[in-house]
Amino acid sequence: MAAPMIKPSRRGLLHKKLGVPQGEKIPEGKIQKAKQSSSPALRKEATFAENFGGKSKGGRGTVPRGEHYQANHREPRSADEFHQLGNSGK
Predict the structure, then answer these.
(1) Could you please report the per-residue DSSP string of 9-74?
(2) Which of 2, 26, 28, 71 is deepest in the core (most CB within 10 A)?
(3) Taking the alpha carbons of 48, 23, 54, 26 in that order, is the dihedral positive or negative?
(4) From the CA atom positions of the chain, what is the Rg in Å?
(5) Rounded mean pLDDT for each run of 10 residues along the chain, 90 residues in total
(6) Residues 48-69 as b or e (16 or more Cβ within 10 Å = b)
(7) Measured between alpha carbons, how far is 71 from 3 in angstroms, rounded to an integer?
(8) CB-side exposure of 1: number of CA atoms within 13 Å?
(9) What per-residue confidence (pLDDT) applies to 57?
(10) Per-domain residue ranges for the chain?
(11) pLDDT number for residue 89
(12) How confident is the model at residue 88, as a pLDDT?
């Protein structure tokens, strides 16, 4: 997987918002707290950092199939719902 493209204007923004010096790893606790923020931009940045941090930088390096995936890709509850979904099962 290639490294994700980050706009030069966005690089280091999460470090700055969380008060962590550039070059240091953002602690997992701060990322989790940022994911609970009332700011949608901060939540997105924290999720991005968690998913795409890379193994060498402390992130998981892969996008997990979490609640978002499960909410949008669940199994149909009944035969009628199966047919409404176009027999795709998604």
Answers:
(1) TTTTHHHHHHT--TTSPPPHHHHHHHHT-S-HHHHHHHHHHHHHS-GGGTS-SS----HHHHHHSP
(2) 26
(3) negative
(4) 18
(5) 76 92 89 93 90 58 51 67 63
(6) bbbbbbeeeeebeeeeeeeeee
(7) 27
(8) 12
(9) 47
(10) 26-84
(11) 46
(12) 54
